[in-house]
Amino acid sequence: MDVIDKALQAASKAHEQQYRKGTDIPYIVHPVAVGLILLKAGYREQVVAAGILHDTVEDTDVTLQDLERDFGKEIAELVAGCTEPDKSLSWEQRKEHTIEYLKTASTEIRAIACADKLHNLRSIMNDYEQSGEEVWSRFKRGKVQQKWYYTNIIESLRYVGSFQLVDELEQEVVRLFN
C-alpha cells in the first residue's frame, strides 16, 4: 500500500469522532489539507504522509512508537518534530517552544509545520468571513496573541532561509490580521 494512502487511513481512524475547534467539521479535513498543501508544493511522499499524521501523537492515543512501527523511523521523526512536547505547559510556553524549535528544525519539519499553520489560518479566515470577530472566542488566546504567534512563526521559519510556503503563510497573516 502506498505510504500516503496508509497515512490517510491511519489518520482517519486516529481522528475519528474529532471535530475542528468550535465547528461540526470532522477533524480529518485538517491533516488531509496539510498533506495536500505539501503534495502541491512538491514534497516527497514521506513528508506528505508525515503531514497527514502530524497531529496523531499530539491529539490522539497514537504514540511515536506506533508510528515508527507502522511507518518507519523517518516518518515518526518528522511527526515528532511537529508535536508539542508537553501539553501541561501554558499556551505561551508551548508556543514559545515551537517558535524557538522551528528556527533550527530540519527543512522538512519546517515545511510540515508551515503547511499546518497555513491551513489553520485559511480555516480561521473562512470562519472569520462567516462570523466576524466572534471567531476568536474559539481559541485559548484571542486575536492579539494569535497574531503574535503567527508573526513569530514566520520569523522562525525564515531564520535559516525562506521557502514558498512561508511566503503563502505571510500573505494569510497579513490578510487575516491587517
TrEMBL record:
Protein's name according to its UniProt entry: Phosphohydrolase
Instruction: Cite the HD/PDEase domain residue spans from the record.
Output: 23-130
**Which molecular function terms from Gene Ontology are attached?**
guanosine-3',5'-bis(diphosphate) 3'-diphosphatase activity
Which keywords has UniProt assigned to this entry? Hydrolase
Offer one Pfam family short name for this entry: HD_4
